[in-house]
Amino acid sequence: MKIGNIDVKISIISILVFVFFTIVLILASVFTPEVRSNLIWMIPALFMLLVIPVALNYMSRKQYADLEPEYERQAKTVRVRLINENMIGKIVRIEGVVERVHFQFLNRPQYSIADRSGAISCKMFTSPDEDIKVNDIVEVLGQVIRRYIVSGEPVINCVSIRKKES
Amino acid sequence: MNKINPRYLELAIPVLSFGAPLAGVLAWRAGYEISFQYFAFGCLIGSVLLAYLAWIRPRKDIVALSTPLYAFIFFVVPTDYASGLVLQLLYALSLTLLLLRLKYRFGDPHTTVSSGKELAATMKEYADRTRDRVRASSIDGHRAAVVVSRFAMGDFAEAARAADGQPADEASLARAFSIVSEHATVLDRSLPRPDPFLDFLPEDSALLALPPTPGVSDEKRFDTALDNALLLLFTAAWNSSPADRPHLLACQGFLGKLLGG
């Protein structure tokens, strides 16, 4: 679904939650007549289960899209092995192969990207523009952060991940 | 706590977490009907030990780190015999599985975690080995420290500027400065690998931390030249400019990664 220039994606979890409560509401209305008088607020509340995730996804993707040109301008292309804890806060660009993808179904994907020098975890806090799969060759733009904000090894807070021609 | 062998702590987790509820069962059978909640102490201590084992690893496992909190939440409420026993045994099983996960997915606790106050053993061995062979003036030593520090921080333009100064007296060191300068410029401007690129000469090989491997690709040779140059500048700085050692210690995680191959 497109809102303006932003391609909004809703996670499968949000859809499943919506479907589950829709079924609950239908069954409750059929078998318990007193529920029907509350449908006037239950049905809008049900749709809010879809509207809120869509709105949040739109806002996060818009913010990421706004950040991307600035990151593009500032980023230094580095090899994975050069990324270290002294570089926390630096904006970097890496190129590599996607080794693993986690949490894509939550719209919070986490990729393990490897180049010839090593591998690093790239966390994204919104859905990416493209559908990224294992073995894709990608270019990642992001900021070096610690895995748990104040501790843990350096990872990349990914602002953009794009497939590259192999 | 540092002197306790982590293997004993690993063993203590299932022993305590399964042992305490089993001791509770024996106590009840013997007629001592103490509140079964108290036998959760084994799970609580097991959780604290698991969190400690997670803490001492270089890669932190947030799930293992948070188990004491879960132990508190699960066991703060009094429970009767049957439900308390089931809960404690399931919790003990979870702790054991988390311990296995920690061991196999989060590395070895013996991996050196730099306290930032002393040099790791591998770095110290390299610095000692090359101490008499890399004779740098204190000026070159300080410049080497600045280059290493700036490079580790990702300030590539400044690293290139610092490396581009007056040539060092020692020929290998001068080559190391030039190599880092070339790489820092490439990184700062996001340029492709130059062809030809700067590399060490065969006579430098005794000084290098990572001996050159014949037959490797140009890409690999290019990367290894940088690793060797940064490590050579590190040892020059460490041995010639003691005032800069705190800055070098702050970068040793990065340098240790290069030295580790």
Structure description:
The complex is a heterodimer of chains A (166) and B (261). By secondary structure, chain A is of the alpha+beta class. In chain A, α1 runs antiparallel to α2. The mean pLDDT of chain A is 91. Chain A has a 5-stranded mixed barrel with strand order 4-5-6-8-7. A two-stranded antiparallel sheet of chain A has the order 1-2. Chain A has helices spanning 12-31, 39-74, and strands at residues 2-3, 6-7, 76-77, 91-102, 110-115, 118-123, 137-146, 154-163. Chain A is built from 2 helices and 8 strands. Chain B has 2 domains: 6-110; 114-258, no CATH class. Helices cover 63% and strands 0% of the residues of chain B. Chain B has helices spanning 6-29, 41-55, 62-65, 67-75, 81-105, 121-129, 138-152, 156-163, 171-188, 218-240, 245-250, 252-259. In chain B, α2 runs antiparallel to α4 (67-75), α7 packs antiparallel against α8 and α7 (138-152) packs across α10. The model of chain B has no long low-confidence stretch (mean pLDDT 87).
